[in-house]
Specification:
Tetratricopeptide repeat protein; Serine Threonine Protein Phosphatase 5, Tetratricopeptide repeat; two-stranded parallel sheet; mainly alpha; 12 helices; 2 domains; two-stranded antiparallel ribbon; 268 residues
């Protein structure tokens, strides 16, 4: 079984093995990664942080868990420019630094092991966590509580003040959606660090893990362009053209397609 097949198999379990699946993504980029070994290392972290948790009902332990992780050194990676290791879960566990989504996936695995109810929230620009039924969200980078006003402020900082907070920003994320978002993050990080072949693996995985947007096809088309694969680039540009409703983007895509060599005729 290939690392990608193992990753997808983790999603078929009930419940899905999210953290292990993320480790298989890391193994797809680095053959030396042994998910079973990393899972053992995570158990040691779980033992460490569980000793510092207060004697409270498990429904009240999510924020203390995040604070304990922060005290143990797990922080948002502030390195600029950000590198792929901020989203590769084996590196995040090793360095104790990562993107919010990577820290959230790690926290969710620890919460599962400690029977602490916790779920991911697909908030744009900064992944968040939530105790089911709670009136607030939690920042995976330290455990700060975020109420609606805080979410609106975070959204305006990430994007623009004119973007209103809506219910779709607070939807619970499935394991599959989290892995797709993780793959998008890795695609961007590998591409910005000039590793187009690694970014292409991530771009392909994005398309396997759920509904793809025009931006997803356009991102892979750009990678194919950089790798001098015009027929594959054409395939993705045509799919992006079918998916976009933006008239300006449609014009740009049409123009870009006109500069590519004609499609190779198939042989029958």
């Amino acid at each position: 079984m290939t690392p990608r097949q193992a990753c997808l198999a983790c999603l078929e379990r009930n419940p899905a093995a999210l953290f292990e699946a993320a480790l298989w993504i890391a193994a797809e980029h680095d053959a030396s990664v042994q998910p079973a070994q990393v899972l053992g290392e995570l158990q040691l972290v779980q033992q460490q942080v569980s000793q510092s948790l207060p004697m409270l009902p498990v429904s009240e332990l999510a924020q203390p868990l995040l604070r304990a992780l922060s005290a143990a050194g797990f922080q948002q990676d502030e390195y600029h420019p950000l590198r792929p290791q901020a989203a590769l879960l084996n590196k995040v566990l090793q360095r104790r630094r990562g993107q919010p989504l990577a820290l959230a996936i790690l926290t969710l695995e620890l919460a599962r092991g400690l029977s602490i109810p916790l779920e991911g929230v697909n908030f744009p620009g900064h992944f968040l966590l939530r105790v089911p039924g709670a009136d607030h969200l939690l920042d995976p980078c330290g455990g700060r509580r975020l109420y609606p006003a805080d979410c609106r402020e975070l959204l305006s900082r990430q994007f623009r003040p004119q973007l209103p907070l809506s219910a779709e920003h607070l939807v619970t994320a499935s394991a599959q959606q989290m892995l797709q978002r993780l793959s998008r993050n890795l695609r961007q990080l590998h591409a910005s660090n000039d590793d187009d072949l690694a970014a292409l693996k991530d771009a392909e995985r994005v398309l396997l893990l759920g509904s793809a947007s025009a931006s997803d096809y356009l991102a892979r088309a750009t990678l194919y362009q950089r790798l001098d694969c015009p027929q594959a680039e054409r395939f993705d540009l045509e799919h992006a053209l079918m998916l976009t409703d933006d008239p300006i983007q449609r014009l740009r895509l049409t123009e870009r397609l006109s500069h590519l060599p004609p499609p190779t005729p198939s042989v029958h």
